[in-house]
């Protein structure tokens, strides 16, 4: 399973805290997971989490960006097929390119939407981009 976040350690959201609590349970079920993070100012991974293998950071120090870094998009295109499930924590990719890549790679998708990432916010953002 791949978990894709906008922010992760130390710029946590509730979703990140939830994953840290959930990871040992996933590990007990032999569900391995990796984390990919769009932007985090000063990433720190103090100690590995049971159930979480690799944590990859992209767009470091860029603050709140609206476009996914090209490096992260390329990485995902090359690696998506390795995962059975991709869990999008909030709408990291507001153009849904990652969703398309995941589906074309045969992945199942789990989508979480919290705080300002409700459907209304995403649609407003899309409308601004296309107008």
What tags apply to this protein structure?
131 residues; alpha/beta; Rossmann fold; five-stranded parallel sheet; 4 helices; 5 strands; globular
| Name of the CATH homologous superfamily | Glycogen Phosphorylase B
Give me the Rg, rounded: 14 Å
Largest sheet: 5 strands, parallel
| Class per helix and strand makeup | alpha/beta
What overall geometry do the principal axes of the alpha carbons give?
globular
Helix content, binned percent: 25-40%
Strand content: 15-25%
Measured between the Cα atoms of the first and last residue, the distance is 36 Å
* Whole-number tally of structural domains: 1
Please write the string of helix (H) and strand (E) elements: EHEEHEHEH
CATH architecture verdict: 3-Layer(aba) Sandwich
CATH class descriptor name? Alpha Beta
What's the total helix number?
Answer: 4
Tell me the number of strands. Answer: 5
Question: Strands of the biggest beta sheet: in what spatial order?
Answer: 3-2-1-4-5
Low-pLDDT parts are none
What is the mean pLDDT? 78
What is the CATH topology descriptor? Rossmann fold
């Amino acid at each position: 399973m791949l978990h894709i976040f906008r922010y992760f350690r130390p710029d946590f959201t509730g979703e990140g805290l939830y994953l840290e609590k959930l990871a040992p349970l996933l590990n007990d079920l032999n569900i391995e997971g990796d984390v990919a993070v769009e932007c985090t100012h000063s990433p720190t991974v103090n100690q590995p989490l049971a159930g979480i293998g690799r944590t990859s950071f992209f767009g470091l120090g860029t603050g709140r960006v609206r476009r996914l870094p090209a490096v992260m998009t390329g990485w995902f295109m090359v690696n998506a097929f390795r995962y059975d499930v991709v869990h999008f924590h909030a709408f990291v990719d507001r153009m849904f390119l990652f969703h398309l890549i995941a589906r074309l790679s045969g992945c199942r998708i789990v989508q979480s939407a919290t705080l300002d990432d409700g459907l209304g916010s995403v649609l407003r953002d899309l409308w601004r981009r296309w107008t």
